[in-house]
């Protein structure tokens, strides 16, 4: 039996990792970057055509700065959004210890709220980053396993052993960073 205690940073890494893998969120981030840059460029050109050079230069400079600095702002904004989401919606799960064990063809997870029994065949894929292991289920749920837990390597080896014949994809991205 393994003891898993999730902290705020584990939930944050999970949400940011999930967002970084979502095609929809990637497209939304790029689209907002382009729209805002084009908006400032258009405003600059409009004021340039009206011979208001000072305001025009302002918008053109802001558009130029936006091209380089908007990705940093957008990354920070998403992180702040997820931090407030976690604070509001996961406050009762932060710091709570749950017990996970592998029994026959199941993963059994127990915490103060109850017990969950998941078939190993319901695992769709496993992602491993430097700080966490994400076990994604076919129903959309995810088990987050922090690397700082006691016997993390034992957990990983047992998980690999029980899932080796199931054809589950195990993606290792130890250099993943939120960008």
Automatic annotation (TrEMBL):
The keyword Transmembrane applies. Keywords: Membrane, Transmembrane, Transmembrane helix. The keyword Transmembrane helix applies. The chain crosses the membrane at residues 30-49, 55-73. It comes from the Bacteria. This is YcxB family protein. The lineage of its organism: Bacteria, Pseudomonadati, Bacteroidota, Bacteroidia, Bacteroidales.
């Amino acid at each position: 039996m393994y003891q898993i205690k999730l902290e705020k940073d584990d939930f944050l890494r999970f949400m940011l990792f999930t967002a970084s893998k979502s095609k929809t969120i990637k497209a939304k981030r790029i689209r907002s970057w382009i729209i805002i840059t084009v908006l400032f460029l258009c405003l600059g050109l409009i004021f340039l055509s009206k011979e208001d050079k000072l305001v025009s230069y302002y918008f053109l400079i802001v558009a130029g700065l936006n091209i380089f600095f908007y990705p940093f702002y957008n990354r920070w904004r998403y992180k702040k959004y997820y931090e407030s989401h976690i604070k509001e919606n996961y406050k009762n799960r932060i710091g709570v210890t749950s017990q996970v064990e592998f029994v026959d063809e199941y993963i059994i997870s127990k915490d103060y709220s109850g017990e969950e029994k998941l078939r190993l065949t319901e695992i769709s894929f496993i992602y491993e980053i430097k700080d966490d292991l994400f076990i994604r289920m076919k129903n959309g749920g995810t088990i987050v396993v922090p690397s700082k837990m006691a016997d993390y390597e034992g957990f990983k080896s047992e998980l690999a052993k029980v899932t080796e014949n199931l054809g589950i994809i195990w993606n290792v991205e130890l250099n993943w960073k939120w960008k």
